[in-house]
# Entry
Amino acid sequence: MKQYIHYFRFFLIVIAVLLFVFLGLRLLVKNEEFIRMNDQTLTTERVFDYADKLSDEEENALRELIKETERKIGCDIVLVTENKSLKEQADKDRGYEAYIEDYIMIYADNFYDNQIFGFDKPYGDGAIFVDNWFREADGYQYYWFSTSGKVMDRYSNEMIEHMNQVILDGLSVSPYQAYENYVKQLGKDMSAGALSGLSIPSYIIVLVALLITAIYTAVFLIQNNGRKTTVATTYVNGGKPNLNQVQDIFLTKHITTRVIETSSGGGRQGGGGGHISSGGHSHGGGGGRR
Amino acid sequence: MIYKCNNCGGNVIYSPEKKAMHCSHCDSLESQNPTPQNSLEQCANCGAPLKLEEFTSAYKCEHCGVYFILDEKVSGVYLPHLILPFQVSRAEAKEKLKQEFKKRIFTPLAFLSEASLSKMEGSYVPFFLYDYTSQVDFEGKGSKVRVWRTGNKEHTETSIYSIQRNMTIDFDKIPVDASIKMNDSVMDLMEPYQYQSLEAFQEKYMSGFFSEFYNKTAEEMKNRAMDKAGRDSETLLQETIQGYSSVTTLHKDIHLMEDKIHYALLPVWIYDFRFRSKTFQFHVNGQTGKVIGKSPISISKVLLYSGSLFVFLLSIGFLIRGIMEVFS
Ligand SMILES: [Zn+2]
Ligand SMILES: [Zn+2]
# Structure
């Protein structure tokens, strides 16, 4: 036991110090929740289940989750289910016949703007997910994830795609699961750690720890006999060989060229799918059909 | 030869601490009076019969405890050219072992306290030291690859070079032990000895220690020295060929010329520990104090220490992440 503590004293001290710092910071920061600054929003409701896909209990559960998440990340989180064609509204908004793929985006943006959502200010930070169960003229059901303010800044095309995938995965279980996934994923993506871009994935930590441990164990097991302390020059007079001839003569060279297939949006940080709604507010986002 | 004290008649032995001949009975220095030990059957001190092994050249009489050197085994064809006198004393060797066990964290704690020392002796091991001149000639082709991008195009430039190397390596005293008893891999790990302390052979340095004369001739042991010289030559050649992404050999010749062979005695402390009905042998370099030997491994200690390290690393990793997240 004495040997053990002595051997690991460095680790124990470091862990104690880190734990102390961590807990201290936690206590200081824990109470720091975001405070909503926008008093112009027309509603306190966040869950608009027009398509009636959720039971009352499920709706309440989502409201609770949203309330809690909003305070943590400082964003409005809105969920809308619909079961009607969005064509008429889209055409009116555009003043001409809108593309069928655009109906839902126009609807989502307008919904957000009309209710004057935004956590920090009107039309500010927040996100809205609209799920339309109605089959439009092309036979598809459309959904759309729309971002505003800092959520828009944060979300790259890849992240929007991922968000939609997470929601679709949930949908194969139940509508409730899908919408819960939406809120939770948003909470994750907008959390302080994720925002700073410094968050290290857990598996990396486990992997690194595992690797170091494996090397440590192997080294000590191998060295159980004693380590080699001679090198190639140990018995060389003067410590190095006499180089009589060292020549590297360039003979020829050839160049080959190939075209790189670039994936679009590579390296782009946030702001995915940006556009400006008819109300003049910018939104990002993306969706799909099923 | 038996070295007896002029003052008290006790056995005078070489002391690494005092770097001198020392009589432990009366504490006299350099008071030795050499008495020949010519017989291989009888102790010249007490007359007791000797049971010697085939290659023994220095031994301790089991009856009277006197150290003697068999004169005919260190003269004539058996005369060593060089000897490296012990520099690590018995007490220092023991201390080195203790320190080493502390470092070997997987050794059971009970090993130090429970193990009994069944043998502890200083021994001069017969070595042949080979001098070689190595002539290395190499010719090959190397390629260097450079990759860069312009727009959406990736360019790969491959340059071919002709590589020529010629070097002479002067190997000085590559050691090979000439004792069958001594495990070759253990002796290899025991290296290196610092040759500046080598001295012309003097028999008195052997007093107080065990020894063998060479079990095999220099000619028979040569291959191991040539292997070492060849391997080191190859390594040194490779070190001069750097910066290529690939090298093909067109011609390579490593030619070893034998210059001189020295017969030398080098010092080793040998310890046999009995621990839980097994013997663990340790060797301590009698000059540098380097410890070689397999210690027992406690599986529970391996699990405890590796497991602890893993848990500690995980804790540190997650705590650092946690702190970083709070800060941002
Ligand atoms: Zn004396
Ligand atoms: Zn005797």
User: Anything to note?
Assistant: DSSP finds five helices and 14 strands in chain B. Chain B has a mean pLDDT of 91. Chain B touches chain A through 75 residues (CB under 8 Å). Residues B 43, 45-46, 48, 61, 63-64, 66 surround zinc ion (ligand 2) (CB under 6 Å).
